[in-house]
Structure formats: C-alpha cells, structure tokens
C-alpha cells in the first residue's frame, strides 16, 4: 500500500482493487457522466465486475483503488504497454509503464484534489526502480487531463488512432516528473 499526504488535501492511499467487493462502487463511478472518457457509460454491474476480474487475472495490467483519508476516491490502472493498450502503436522502451486514472465524481469538489491524485499515482509508479517512463494515451479531446498531465511532467509526442479513440500519446520520465513536482 502506498500513502502520500498533501497539505490542504489529506492522505491519499493506494491499495489493490478487489474486483468483486469494489465493483458496485466502480460501477457508480465509470457510468457517471463525468467519466465519459472512461468509455463505460452503458456498463452494467456485471460488465464492471467482468472487466476488473480480467484485469486482476492479467499479469500485464493491474488496478488499484485510491483512498482519500480512508474513503474510496479514485481508481488507478497500470499496464505494460508492450503487451496491452499500445501494442503496435509505438515502440516501447524497457521501463515503460502505462497508466490510467479516474477520480470519483463528487458533489463537493476540493480545489487541487485531482492534481494531488495524479501526483500520488505518478509517485507510486516511480517508486518501482524499474519504471523509467510513464506512458499515457488520453482522448485528444480530453483537454482537462492534458493540462493535468503537463502539470506532472508529461510531454505529448503525437496523436495515435486506437480502436476506440483518437489519443494523444504522451510520456513522462522520472526526471520530468521530479522537476514538475519540485516546481509546483
């Protein structure tokens, strides 16, 4: 379990996702209108359970549940882009790790929360000394996440066409992340 405390935000903790126990919660998140870019708007509870059972069984894809002061508040997925998501769309380097994150919808947004989440997610990924670079492929029209990615050091490389979307392939090295966080 990874824990990071941010002034004014609180404590963010990551724990392994339990696909069955957490499915109801995830279902409410991924089908919410604010999660449109997660592309599960019409998913049934069984669809969410199945999707996260598949991830749990996949050696190249992992899901973690993020807690804010002990309360579930975000989802993080990490994957090996040499085997999932980006196969054939770019040339992966040793130490590349793919990442997705989703912040739970809320009626009481906290200023700076999403940035604290992506910072905690990136810090978690770089805790592994084998991680050299984080790779993301958000929808090209998701301007909010592009801004967040840039804030933690991501540099866009190019647009790519995935089966489900037009994506902005972006990379962040450990050094770029550390520099971005130090300058925040």
Structure, explained:
By secondary structure, this protein is an alpha+beta fold. Helices cover 29% and strands 30% of the residues. It contains 5 helices and 8 strands, in the order E-E-H-H-E-E-E-H-E-H-E-E-H.
What's the structural blueprint in terms of helices and strands?
Layout: E1 2-6, E2 10-16, H1 23-30, H2 45-57, E3 61-68, E4 71-79, E5 96-103, H3 113-127, E6 133-136, H4 143-151, E7 155-161, E8 166-173, H5 174-182
Parallel strand pairs: 5-6
Antiparallel strand pairs: 1-2, 2-3, 3-4, 4-5, 6-8, 7-8
Helix pairs in contact: 1-2
Number of strands: 8
Average pLDDT metric:
91
Rounded to the nearest angstrom, the radius of gyration is: 16 Å
Whole-Å distance between the termini? 25 Å
Spatial arrangement of strands, main beta sheet: 1-2-3-4-5-6-8-7
Structure described in brief:
The chain is an alpha+beta fold and 184 residues long. The protein is 29% helix and 30% strand. Helix 1 packs across helix 2.
Descriptive labels:
184 residues, alpha+beta, eight-stranded mixed beta sheet, 8 strands, 30% strand, globular
């Amino acid at each position: 379990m990874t824990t990071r405390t941010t002034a004014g935000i609180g404590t963010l903790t990551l724990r392994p996702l339990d696909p069955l126990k957490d499915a109801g919660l995830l279902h409410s998140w991924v089908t919410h209108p604010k999660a449109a870019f997660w592309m599960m708007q019409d998913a049934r509870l069984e669809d969410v359970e199945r999707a996260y059972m598949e991830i749990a069984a996949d050696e190249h894809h992992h899901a973690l549940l993020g807690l804010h002061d002990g309360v579930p508040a975000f989802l993080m997925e990490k994957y090996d882009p040499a085997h999932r998501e980006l196969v054939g769309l770019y040339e992966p380097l040793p130490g590349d790790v793919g990442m997705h994150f989703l912040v739970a919808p809320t009626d009481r947004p906290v200023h700076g929360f999403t940035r604290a989440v992506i910072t905690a997610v990136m810090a978690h990924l770089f805790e592994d000394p084998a991680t050299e670079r984080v790779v993301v492929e958000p929808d090209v029209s998701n301007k909010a996440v592009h801004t967040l990615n840039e804030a933690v050091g991501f540099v866009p490389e190019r647009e790519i066409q995935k089966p489900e979307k037009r994506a902005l392939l972006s990379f962040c090295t450990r050094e770029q992340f550390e520099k971005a966080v130090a300058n925040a």
